[in-house]
Design goal:
By secondary structure, the chain is α/β, with parallel strands linked by helices. It has one domain (2-202): Rossmann fold. Helices cover 39% and strands 8% of the residues. The chain has helices at 19-26, 38-41, 45-59, 76-86, 109-117, 130-134, 152-163, 184-193, 195-202; strands at 2-4, 9-11, 32-33, 69-73, 145-148. Strands 3-1-2-4-5 form a five-stranded mixed beta sheet, covered by helices on one side. A hairpin with a 4-residue loop joins strand 1 and strand 2 (9-11). The longest helix has 15 residues, at 45-59. The two termini are 29 Å apart.
Length: 209
């Protein structure tokens, strides 16, 4: 999460949506950077609304309620496949690594999908939902202004307008490449598994429209 009182904006870091790159590139233009521990870095909108915003109103003033809150949301099948690829990284392959229980290098994509859909997924398939990240406390209303992940340049231009000058967006924490790609059938399955995510994502107008 990034909060800029000077430039009057808030950015929420959705997982697998270039959050590390944006935080790195904007941290010097922000007054508060929750970017080290993942539970702080990926604070969802409902928590911002319930806990962070009241604190800002108390310390900064009532005007902060008018600060626009931005975030990215990724095409849900692509987002899920990015998780799968990220957890295949060699860094956590060793059995004595503290995060080896998340390793998917010996798990097929089909098995991963099956686990994500399970009521009690195994640790490697616990990825949450983008819908829960962007919904307000009422779990019905979308809180932040949303940009599609593939339209990250549009978001970046908006953030640079707040800062008042062009900035370079550095690429960090990129998932390893994969020869495999989700099929049309996979996307059909994901539209069922991630129905709420798709409902929100499909409602965002792409930059080219």
């Amino acid at each position: 999460m990034l909060i800029s009182v000077k430039h009057k904006f808030v950015f929420l870091s959705n997982q697998k949506c270039a959050s590390s790159s944006i935080i790195k590139s904007l941290k010097d233009h922000s007054d508060a950077v929750l970017g080290n521990h993942f539970r702080l870095r990926h604070t969802p909108y409902a928590d911002y609304e319930q806990f962070v915003l009241p604190f800002l109103q108390h310390r900064v003033g009532p005007e902060v309620v008018n600060y626009p809150v931005y975030t990215l949301i990724r095409e849900p099948t692509d987002w899920l496949f990015s998780w799968y690829k990220f957890r295949r990284r060699q860094k956590i392959e060793a059995e004595d690594h503290p995060r080896h229980h998340l390793y998917t290098g010996d798990i097929s994509w089909a098995e991963f999908l099956q686990e994500v859909a399970s009521p009690k997924p195994r640790p490697f398939a616990k990825v949450g939902r983008q819908a829960k990240f962007v919904l307000a406390a009422d779990q019905k209303t979308v809180g932040p202004t949303l940009f599609r992940f593939e339209d990250i340049d549009q978001l970046w231009s908006t953030l640079c307008e707040h800062v008042g000058k062009p900035l370079v967006l550095e690429r960090r924490n990129v998932s390893p490449p994969s020869e495999q790609a989700p099929s049309a059938e996979d996307q059909k399955k994901c539209r069922t598994i991630l129905a709420d995510d798709y409902r929100i994502y499909d409602a965002i107008l792409p930059a080219s429209s």
